Amino acid sequence: MKDSNNTINHLISSIYDGVEDPANFESALKEISMQLKIAKAHIFLKNNSNRLSGLSFCANIDGDFIREYHDLYYPTDYRMQFIKKSEFSKAILDDEFNSEIELKTNPIHNILHVKYDINKIMGSNIGSKYKTGWFGVSTLRRGGEFSAETAREFEAIAIHVRKALHLRLLSEEVSEKAIAHESANDTQTHGIAVTIDDTTEYANSVAKEILKSGFLRMQDGKLLCSEIAGQRIIDGAYRQLQAGISPVIRLSDSTNGMGYAVQMFNPLPRFVKGRLERARRVTYKIMVFSEALEISTKTLERLGSLFNLSQSESGVISAVINLQSLGEYAKQKGVREDTVRKQLKSSMSKLGVNSQKQIIQIYERFRFFE
């Protein structure tokens, strides 16, 4: 048992090596395959709002499988609906998400799996609220089964595969090194602050001016807000940060109507001697704006192009971002409110969101990095 635990710890350490160098994910997957005595392994993580953005790695299988699956089969893979609803990092067998009819008729089973010699599958949901992720392995033989011990070891590893893949995607989306370099230029329009453990390691002049107002402050290495509602939002962002997400939050100072956009970046944790050490540094990017947002045409055009929004859909999104009521917007446009609600519903469907708050979050994320 001790040797097995040591081996699992070694595999977990190898997985985290992939955060620094993605080429190591493939070698780690090969080692996992040997330990679990399985044939093939595949991991991927995709942004729900942009399927072109994401990561995908495989082991012991032709590299063309990744291109073929994600280009031809992933958009209509019926199994993902079940997988997305399953518990994170819990082992599930293909008997649980396969459909008897689909097994007979779906090209995933009759073409893709046959072409790449994929047998019985065990996998795990390694996604999140805003991302779809999968970690799957297949048996050595077509009629093979997974033992209870293999399932336990798989779950122990899946937890860390999920964390490492999210961290890798985060590191690709935002380079901390680039932020640190940019923060040396105090002529920029946003504040940068970096904390390490319980102290503030760095703050540029813009950040110092923002924190001087008192609405936001740094204390014991954490960002705090003077208003209870704002502090609750920050506390929620810290929970997202621990889950490997780089949250963007919007805060409003009720005393003067000023708004603040804050993004937190969580650097990579380290797996040392069988345990995961928490990240010591956190970087904060802070931008101040008037509560009545000046809508960026450039950002709206980017959103419209990426999500194929019509002119009317972009218009109603602009109203939502400006905190304008649908009734006021409908009156302004000379149309019925029901028409505006239909336009809003259509735009939300294209954006992949289910609330007006999420529309604002997407807009702020895009504008934040213009």
Describe the model.
The protein is α+β, with helices and mostly antiparallel strands. It has three domains: 2-173, Transcription factor LuxR-like, autoinducer-binding domain (Beta-Lactamase, 2-Layer Sandwich); 176-290, PAS domain (Beta-Lactamase, 2-Layer Sandwich), CATH 3.30.450; 297-368, Winged helix-like DNA-binding domain superfamily/Winged helix DNA-binding domain (Arc Repressor Mutant, subunit A). The protein has 16 helices and 14 strands. The protein has helices at 2-20, 23-36, 64-73, 79-85, 94-97, 100-105, 107-115, 148-173, 176-183, 205-212, 228-242, 297-307, 311-321, 326-333, 337-351, 356-368, and strands at 40-47, 50-59, 92-93, 121-125, 131-138, 191-196, 199-203, 216-219, 222-225, 248-252, 258-265, 270-272, 275-277, 281-290. The strands form four sheets. A five-stranded antiparallel beta sheet has the order 2-1-5-4-3, sandwiched between helices. Strand 10 (248-252) and strand 11 (258-265) form a beta hairpin. Helix 1 runs parallel beside helix 8 (148-173), helix 12 packs across helix 13 and helix 13 crosses helix 15 (337-351).
